[in-house]
Amino acid sequence: MIDFAKYRASYFLFSLTVIIAGIAALFLGPGLRFSIEFSSGAAVNATFLEVTPQESIELAIDSLGYESAVVQGLGDREYFLRLPVAEASERQQLDVRLALEEHAGELEGYSFDLVSPAVARETVRNGLIAVLIAVIGILGYIVYAFRSVRHPFRYGIAAIIALVHDIAAAFAVAGLFMLIASQWLHLEISSMFLVGVLTLLGYSINDTIVIFDRIRENILRETSRDIVATANYSIMESMARSINTSFTTLVVLLALFLLGPTTIRDFLFVMIVGVVSGTYSSVFTATQVLVSWETRSLGRLPFLGGGRGGAAPSPSTPARASQGG
């Protein structure tokens, strides 16, 4: 049987390294901007009949006097623009279109969305409340569902830590992608991004509960087995199911991401990262946090050693008499 718990410290270190690197990329690179739903402003998608250089788009925007505008190319003929709300907002849509046609060329497609600051603040608040309610609900459910074992609260906290890990991983990987491939991939924190996070919470916790459920059954069935052996055995029982489910889901998400509409690309990106991260965290984060909590040890690092990799000593085991002195 594979000893998954032995080097759990290395799993924690790996996750921490990836998350820190990704969060740093959010600040060092282009980062993830809030969509107009969360930050207020105007969002424009413009598609031209002919190939249009970005300089022409920037010239058109400069002619309107916007200082904090963002222009991002999505291809040779398609551009995404984010603009501040103009004082004469009722004419902004027409003014932007006329400026683009005058300086950049004839348009094939044009969409304009405007969100006021008040609506943006309400959207942010509602989004945070939705995530908080989801997390509290998950914690309460796990504590209740695992009330038949000792310390059910630990199972709930371990699962929440795994969820935080997955959300942080989604932002971190997005930051890395924006640093490396912002020219080809446009991501932002939008309503679809938030929907992806909420869906990710449900998907990830499902995988974690499957393993925790096996741990609970094995603990109640084999009372003499320690928590480390129980966790390893439960992971082995659940591994094939988790990998098969995640792989089939990932294939569908990748197909939609590559061939589907760009309007749901933020959602699909979060889900793709979440499926991989959720499968990883259920085995190497949630379960290992639970084992570390029960054994009061973080395990070992390869080639460096560290704390105990095994279970905490049983209270019935007599202490070895000290010698010497």
Describe the structure.
The chain is an alpha+beta fold and 325 residues long. The chain has helices at residues 8-28, 36-39, 54-63, 89-103, 117-145, 152-181, 191-221, 227-259, 265-295; strands at 33-34, 41-48, 70-73, 78-83, 107-115, 188-189, 300-301, 305-306. It folds into two domains: 8-33 and 120-316, Multidrug efflux transporter AcrB transmembrane fold (Up-down Bundle), CATH 1.20.1640; 41-115, 2-Layer Sandwich (Alpha-Beta Plaits), CATH 3.30.70.3400. Helix content is 63%, strand content 11%. Helix 1 crosses helix 6 (152-181), helix 6 (152-181) packs across helix 9 (265-295) and helix 7 runs antiparallel to helix 8 (227-259). The model is unreliable at 305-325 (pLDDT under 50).
Secondary structural class = alpha+beta
Portion in helices: 55-70%
Task: Just give the CATH class of the largest domain.
Answer: Mainly Alpha
Oligomer state equals single chain
- Label the CATH architecture of the largest domain: Up-down Bundle
- SSE pattern, N- to C-terminal: HEHEHEEHEHHEHHHEE
- The name of the CATH superfamily of the largest domain reads Multidrug efflux transporter AcrB transmembrane domain
Q: Unreliable stretches, pLDDT < 50, 5 or more residues?
A: 305-325
User: What does the radius of gyration come to?
Assistant: 25 Å
- Give the DSSP E fraction (strand runs of 2 or more residues): 5-15%
Taken together, the total number of domains comes to 2
- What is the number of strand segments? 8
The overall pLDDT, averaged over residues, is 81
Distance between the termini: 41 Å
